[in-house]
Amino acid sequence: MNSKKELWVLLSSFILPIALGTAFFYWNPTAFTGNTVNYGEFVNPIIATKEQDVVFAKGSKGSLQGLWTLAYVTNQCDDACINTLKDMKLTRTLVNENMRRIQRLLLINGTTDITEPGLLIAQPSEALRQQLGRFPNNTLFLIDPLGNVMLHYNPQTLVIKLVLKDLKRLLKLSRIG
């Protein structure tokens, strides 16, 4: 009699947590899809870039492969652009030992006379320009080491401390780049 009771206790200890977890998932589906811990908004659907999507300016060699990229997309570089570029430089510095895993990119549709050490300057291809056209001008993007545009930050509500928090979390969890 005790062996049957022990068998049922043992089976229930394995089956009951699975049954409760499944029931919780189906009765409360928003519990797993509602909130995220990131401050930027995910780019959905994801924009996968190719090497020919970014044409680097003369004297600016680079690639979107292998490093995390903070990319600022604009039509012309005005005062807001210069301030954001300074904030991007500060953000890169504030990640301390991980700063070598991050690069900065100014993706501009026109021409610019900005020359800053460590800043990559490029123009988007027509295909990339169309994909990024659904976002407002002067948007900051985070591109992963595989070249996928994954997060964007609204230019009107851009707080560089929140970008820094997202970046630190990604660098801590990432095994690539």
Features:
4 helices, alpha/beta, 177 residues, Glutaredoxin
Would you kindly provide a written description of the structure presented here, covering whatever features stand out?
It contains four helices and seven strands; from the N terminus they run αβββαββαββα. The protein folds into two domains: 2-31; 41-173, Glutaredoxin. It is α/β, with parallel strands linked by helices and 177 residues long. α2 packs parallel to α4. The chain has helices spanning 2-27, 79-94, 126-132, 160-173; strands spanning 41-48, 54-56, 68-74, 102-108, 119-124, 139-143, 148-153. α2 (79-94) links the parallel β3 (68-74) and β4. Strands 1-7-6-3-4-5-2 form a seven-stranded mixed sheet.
